[in-house]
């Protein structure tokens, strides 16, 4: 298992190398720079040139490339031009918000999605199946952005149950934190809930047709044990793989949700940096997001191998 | 000094009311007012940035020698007034009593260091270019000596664009955006959480300018009646509106016009229309053929239905005015050029196209999606230009890309821009935009250059007014750029916010929370 994990980790390195090169190169391709943001629309060419010089934007690209990789090797992601703060520090400061949002959404999507999937599979072709799959389809089809605003209107403006946005630190007020995260996480979860439900239904339908399930039923084992203990465990293997992909999608979706609900997370940091061309943050943020994505996929692969020993022994 | 010119007339008049005794005034303050704005500040170093998002915060923390009043005219703020020599080369400022947030009393050394820093890092550093040297004969007097007359000097140092903020001398040696946030304003800085909020708190030792009776623009008497200010950064307009409705937010710096109309009957809310807020303009690149031909530019000027552009791009909150200065201000040039404003004559446009020998060259209209006004103005203008036979291609990008493109001499013919703070400042920024080494149209126009020279060097106001009128005439005659009209905005408050007066930025002094 350890050898398998080390091998998978090694394959991740070239991916990260490519991402780091792309994240450096992308800022040279995209027009505009942070000086435009700071100087304002009516700045003269002279004012802009002076500002660029002061911000170090006029250094040649090869000099900046060497600086970028040199700093990376030292674990330094550089300093944000606008925040006047280390990029790593800025990201680490915001990471708990994004990770909490992503994993809360993943948990909600997984629990409700697989439950809907199991119900749909067990009651395949019946009313419960149609309702469950219909719900999943709606969640899957609606855009996060629109859904978020609808939720704000219903749960904050009309009912007054939850805040419209903003973030409360868990350490300051755990209940306030939960209230501030519920709407964003719920909104983000809805799209992936449908994915989990459909995957679980398909996998369960296949497993429920297997001989060992028929045998278990023939032995007189209660239905909920057959479904919950024997069938679901095997059906979850492909669903776990989907969880890895969903995690990446949710990380991406967090960017939009953080903006709608004014959450100070990594997604909003990167979007703000792109809008204002704060290059070090864009570069560092992209690299970090890619690293998280690679690590989550690695984790899923390892989990997959743990669930199904045939994979780590290369027998599949 | 040969002649005294008192620029603090309003202050002087207020002084006669018996309120002129300066000193610390401690008021009972309570509550936290929450304001929401779309963007977060690129910097909290007031001197270096021209961003509106920064101004909203910084003008509560920092003060300037002179500041703009309700009508955008300069009035003394940290200065008691100024004596200007008749040759226009010496400005003697008497300072009022003021205290920094670190407890230190403001002296002339702080002012000198701040002005000198502004010349190095200021967002509008050009205003310090005429300065030869700054002297501090005593702790309460600053003398600025200019190399050449600069009648716009007071206008420049009083502008909120990138405020020429007075900071402690110890901070003035620091790089841009590296200073401690210490000013003399009625609120002091507490914390900045990027992507979340800035918190300010009432400065208990604030020295009010008792020469004034009440608030007056960014000058006047600033009384902090609320204990704390929380400025939240909420990028999504719908979320800001929802926050106002639920009471989580008390003040919105701007609310979408349709939302304002929808909520107008809500007794818990108050909508405050501000007109004018900005010019909606269409800038033209004179070095990209066929725009180098003034006849072709006049054809475009004649083809456009500016009222349609304004109606669509502003959701209906606009007014049709031709002036390159706001009506009612000192430099408004009356009807000059009005006959060429909003001509909307397609036949005339087609005739001018024939006269210009237009050969169906592609015309690139550049806009950005970051400001909805810009995008809508460009798309509407494109349709109108197509209708007279101009081969138009629209390019819509994000703001930094569009801005970067417009600084290039190629790749665009027409560019949509709202000019907000410049016309508010007066004529210097507006005329300066079309003159100098890098005019927006990329080709120097000698008549405009002359107007700029007369405006920035003439000591007589009448001459400067004439320069602005000549500038406006030239703008229309040569179709240098197109002014579509004036854009308004709506600020919104909860009904519990009392004493709120809409202005260029939402001001938190003078308000109370019921």
Structure description:
The complex is a heterodimer of chains A (316) and B (514). Chain A starts with a helix and ends with a helix. Chain A is 79% helix and 0% strand. Chain A has helices spanning 2-29, 34-39, 45-55, 61-73, 87-122, 127-141, 144-158, 174-208, 211-218, 223-260, 266-276, 279-307, 309-312. With 316 residues, chain A is an all-alpha fold. Chain A is globular, with a radius of gyration of 24 Å. In chain A, helix 5 (87-122) runs antiparallel to helix 6 and helix 10 (223-260) runs parallel beside helix 11 (266-276). Chain A is built from 13 helices and no strands. Chain B has 514 residues and is an alpha+beta fold. Helix content of chain B is 30%, strand content 24%. Chain B has 16 helices and 23 strands. The longest helix of chain B has 17 residues, at 461-477. Chain B is globular, with a radius of gyration of 24 Å. The model of chain B is unreliable at 1-27 (pLDDT under 50).
What are its keywords?
heterodimer; A: 316 residues; mainly alpha; 13 helices; B: 514 residues; alpha+beta; eleven-stranded mixed beta sheet; four-stranded antiparallel beta sheet; globular
- Report the sheet-strand fraction of chain B: 15-25%
Outline the biggest β-sheet of chain A: none
Alpha carbon gyration radius of chain A: 24 Å
What is the CA-CA span between the terminal residues of chain A? 16 Å
Task: Tell me the total number of β-strands of chain B.
Answer: 23
In the predicted model, the low-confidence regions of chain A spanning at least 5 consecutive residues are: none
Mean pLDDT of chain A: 83
Q: Which structural class do you get from the secondary structure elements of chain A?
A: mainly alpha
Number of H- or I-type helical stretches of chain B: 16
Q: How much helix, percentage-wise, in residues of chain B?
A: 25-40%
* Helix fraction bin of chain A: over 70%
Strand content of chain A: under 5%
Tell how many strands the DSSP assignment of chain A holds. 0
């Amino acid at each position: 298992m350890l050898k398998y994990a080390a091998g998978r980790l090694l394959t991740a390195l070239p991916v990260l190398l490519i991402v780091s090169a792309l994240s450096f190169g992308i800022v040279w391709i995209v027009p505009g720079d942070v000086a435009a943001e700071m100087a304002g629309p009516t700045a003269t060419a002279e004012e802009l040139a002076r500002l660029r010089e002061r911000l170090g934007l006029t250094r040649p690209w090869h000099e900046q490339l060497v600086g970028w990789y040199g700093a990376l090797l030292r674990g330094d992601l550089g300093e944000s031009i606008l925040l006047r703060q280390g990029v790593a520090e800025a990201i680490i400061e915001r990471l708990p918000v994004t990770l909490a949002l992503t994993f809360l959404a993943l948990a909600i999507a997984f629990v409700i999605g697989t439950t809907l999937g199991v119900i749909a599979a067990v009651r395949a072709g019946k009313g419960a199946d149609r309702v469950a799959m219909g719900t999943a389809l709606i969640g899957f089809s609606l855009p996060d952005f629109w859904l978020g605003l609808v939720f704000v209107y219903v749960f904050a403006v009309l009912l007054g149950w939850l805040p419209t946005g903003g973030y409360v630190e868990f350490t300051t007020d755990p209940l306030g934190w939960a209230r501030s995260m519920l709407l964003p996480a719920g909104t983000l979860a809805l799209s992936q809930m449908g994915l989990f439900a459909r995957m679980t239904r398909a996998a369960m339908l296949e497993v429920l047709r297997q001989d060992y399930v028929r045998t278990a039923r023939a032995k007189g084992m209660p239905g909920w044990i057959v479904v919950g203990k024997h069938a679901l465990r095997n059906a979850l293997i492909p669903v776990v793989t989907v969880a890895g992909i969903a995690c990446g999608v949710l990380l991406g979706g967090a960017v939009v949700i953080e903006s709608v609900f004014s959450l100070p997370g990594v997604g909003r940091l990167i979007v703000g940096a792109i809008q204002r061309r704060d290059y070090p943050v864009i570069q560092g943020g992209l690299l970090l997001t890619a690293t998280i994505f690679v690590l989550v996929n690695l984790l899923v692969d390892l989990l997959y191998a743990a669930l199904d020993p045939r994979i780590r022994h290369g027998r599949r | 000094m040969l002649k005294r010119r008192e620029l603090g007339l309003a202050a002087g008049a207020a002084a006669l009311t018996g309120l002129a005794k300066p000193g610390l005034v401690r008021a009972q303050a309570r509550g936290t007012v929450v304001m929401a704005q779309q963007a977060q500040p690129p910097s909290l170093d007031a001197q270096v940035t021209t961003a509106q998002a920064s101004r909203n915060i910084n003008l509560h923390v920092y003060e300037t020698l002179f500041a703009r009043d309700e009508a955008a005219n300069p009035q003394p703020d940290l200065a008691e007034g100024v004596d200007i020599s008749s040759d226009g080369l010496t400005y003697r400022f008497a300072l009022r009593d003021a205290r920094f947030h670190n407890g230190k009393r403001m002296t002339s050394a702080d002012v000198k260091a701040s002005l000198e820093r502004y010349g190095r890092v200021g967002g509008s550093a050009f205003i310090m270019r005429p300065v030869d040297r700054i002297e501090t004969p005593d702790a309460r007097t600053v003398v600025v000596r200019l190399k050449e007359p600069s009648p716009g000097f007071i206008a420049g140092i009083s502008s909120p664009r990138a405020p020429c903020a007075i900071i402690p001398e110890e901070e003035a040696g620091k790089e841009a955006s590296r200073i401690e946030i210490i000013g003399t304003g009625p609120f002091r800085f507490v914390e900045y959480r990027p992507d979340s909020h800035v918190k300010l708190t009432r400065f208990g030792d604030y020295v009010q300018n008792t020469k004034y009776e009440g608030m007056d623009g960014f000058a006047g008497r600033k009384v902090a009646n609320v204990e704390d200010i929380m400025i939240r950064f909420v990028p999504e307009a719908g979320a800001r509106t929802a926050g106002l409705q639920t009471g989580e937010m008390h003040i919105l710096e701007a609310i979408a016009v349709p939302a304002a109309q929808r909520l107008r009957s809500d007794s818990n809310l108050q909508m405050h229309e501000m007109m004018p807020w900005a010019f909606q303009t269409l800038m033209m690149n004179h070095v990209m053929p066929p725009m180098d031909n003034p006849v072709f530019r006049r054809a475009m000027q004649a083809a456009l239905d500016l009222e349609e552009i304004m109606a669509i791009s502003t959701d209906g909150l606009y007014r049709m005015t031709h002036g390159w200065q706001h009506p009612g201000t000192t430099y408004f040039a009356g009807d000059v050029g009005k006959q060429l404003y909003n001509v909307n004559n397609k036949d005339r446009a087609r005739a001018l196209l024939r006269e210009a020998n237009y050969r169906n060259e592609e015309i690139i209209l550049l806009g950005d999606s970051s400001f909805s006004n810009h995008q809508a103005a460009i798309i509407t203008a494109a349709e109108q230009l197509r209708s007279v036979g101009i081969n138009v291609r629209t390019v819509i990008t994000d703001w930094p890309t569009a801005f970067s493109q417009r600084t290039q001499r190629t790749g665009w013919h027409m560019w949509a821009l709202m000019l907000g703070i410049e016309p508010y400042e007066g004529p210097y920024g507006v005329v300066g935009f079309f003159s100098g080494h890098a005019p927006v149209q990329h080709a120097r126009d000698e008549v405009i250059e002359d107007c700029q020279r007369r405006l920035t060097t003439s000591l007589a106001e009448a001459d400067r007014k004439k320069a602005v009128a000549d500038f406006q005439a030239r703008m229309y005659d040569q179709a240098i750029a197109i002014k579509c009209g004036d854009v308004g905005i709506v600020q919104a408050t909860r009904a519990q916010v009392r004493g709120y007066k809409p202005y260029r930025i939402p001001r938190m002094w003078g308000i109370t929370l019921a």
